[in-house]
Structure prediction request, 78 residues.
Amino acid sequence: MLITCPKCESKARIATSKAITKDTREAYCQCMNLNCGVIFVTYTSVCRIIEPTGKKPNPNLQPELCKLEDVNQVDMFG
Ligand SMILES: [Zn+2]
Prediction:
């Protein structure tokens, strides 16, 4: 997912993220422009569902989707 810096409009990267609700995720982002380096927070939310199946994943086929809490990426903000 491409994140744009709100200050200098360069590319930014997602450093880490965590679930706020089952529909919303909070992400800590850092601008990749060395002259800027702004750190900011974004929210990604489910807006609407296009294909309404809602079936749970098959643990035999996709065991990684059946874990309760996903492991965050490297947390550079401690
Ligand atoms: Zn920036």
